[in-house]
Design a protein that fits this description.
Strand order of the largest sheet: 3-2-1-4-5-6
Shape: elongated
Number of helices: 12
CATH class of the largest domain: Alpha Beta
Radius of gyration: 21 Å
Strand content: 5-15%
Number of domains: 2
Bound molecules: nicotinamide-adenine-dinucleotide
Helix content: 40-55%
Largest sheet: 6 strands, parallel
Order of helices and strands: EHEHEEHEHEEHEHEHHHHHH
Structural class: alpha/beta
């Protein structure tokens, strides 16, 4: 049994911490929201009221699940962040989706202070967090990955080592950039088929076994009908919100710019999802971009 400090108990972090508690670990929990902390305490976690005042010498592992790079940086490197009483060699696992540069900078600084670090962003939403079936994409030294894996196995189903620190974030944003692009392409194809008199089910039957086949079509079809469980059949309720897709596309563009990589379709996907944000429809599922393509957002 490990002693874990879990920071960030939101939509994702709450159920992830809960699964660590259920697996028998002693989990100390901290969040700016008292309601979130109370919920975990009622499940058997131990409340941390202030990181600064917390005596952390028994902690082996820190897990964070925070909104963005600035929160991660302030928790790991800021004055109000990790307890100064943490011992050397503590394993720090950041599961947040953040920019590659911050992940690498935080990792380097922690390692220079004698700590271990992996970035381990996830794929899968709150349902997967609750069921413990998340996919983790992990960046960091092999020995740190191996130490992190038993904890990630509790919270997820697939755990991949993607290389050095930051590479988990690279895998996540490259995957989601590709997802955004093929979702938009799929919407365009279904909309064009419809305008030309080809119904969604017939087009699906053909394209899903032809060269246009892709995940957005076969598992998550943005046209209502062919895939029963898809958000398109419940007026695009998420699912994976367009706002989350836009966050990931922005991270991808930021990284592309600093790496001088050409991503014209990624840039276009970001611009289109930003239109959903401007229209205040980014709470719809990301497949709801179909409505934008159809001119009925
Ligand atoms: P959320 O906003 O529900 O939760 C974030 C939590 O962090 C909140 O409870 C907030 O109070 C807490 N927090 C913020 N700053 C803090 C600080 N300094 N100290 C302690 N707690 C602090 O967000 P979420 O949906 O749980 O997402 C978390 C991360 O997971 C994000 O990076 C997101 O991109 C990623 N993600 C989310 C989903 C999803 O479906 N929600 C899927 C994949 C990845």
């Amino acid at each position: 049994m490990a002693e874990i400090l879990f920071i960030g108990l939101g939509n994702m972090g709450g159920p992830m911490a809960s699964n660590l508690v259920k697996s028998g670990h002693k989990v100390h929990v901290f969040d700016l929201s008292k309601v979130a902390v109370d919920s975990l305490v009622s499940q058997g976690a131990v409340e941390v009221t202030s990181l600064n005042a917390f005596h952390g010498s028994a902690i082996d592992t820190v897990v964070t699940m925070l909104p963005s790079g600035k929160h991660v940086e302030s928790v790991y490197l800021g004055e109000e962040g990790l307890p100064s009483t943490l011992k050397q060699g503590v394993l720090n696992i950041d599961c947040s989706t953040i920019d590659v540069e911050t992940a690498r900078r935080v990792g380097e600084q922690l390692i220079s202070k004698g700590q271990l670090f992996v970035d381990a962003p996830v794929s899968g939403g709150t349902a997967a967090a609750t069921a413990g079936t998340l996919t983790f994409m992990v960046g960091g030294e092999t020995s740190s990955f191996e130490k992190a894996k038993p904890f990630l196995d509790v919270m997820g189903k697939n755990v991949f080592h993607a290389g050095d620190a930051g590479n988990g974030q690279v895998a996540k944003i490259c995957n989601n950039m590709l997802l955004g692009i093929h979702m938009i392409g799929t919407c365009e194809a279904f909309n064009l088929a419809d305008k030309l008199g080809l119904d969604a089910q017939t087009f699906f039957d053909i394209a899903s076994t032809a060269s246009g086949q892709n995940w957005s079509m076969t598992s998550y079809c943005p046209a209502p009908g062919p895939v029963e469980a898809a958000p398109s059949n419940r007026d695009y309720q998420p699912g994976f919100a367009a706002a989350m897709m836009l966050k990931d596309l922005r991270l991808a563009q930021e990284a592309a710019s600093s790496a001088r990589a050409s991503t014209p379709l990624g840039a276009q996907a970001e611009a289109l999802y930003a239109l959903m944000e401007s229209a205040q429809k980014d709470d719809l599922d990301f497949s709801g971009i179909m409505k934008l393509i159809q001119g009925r957002l």
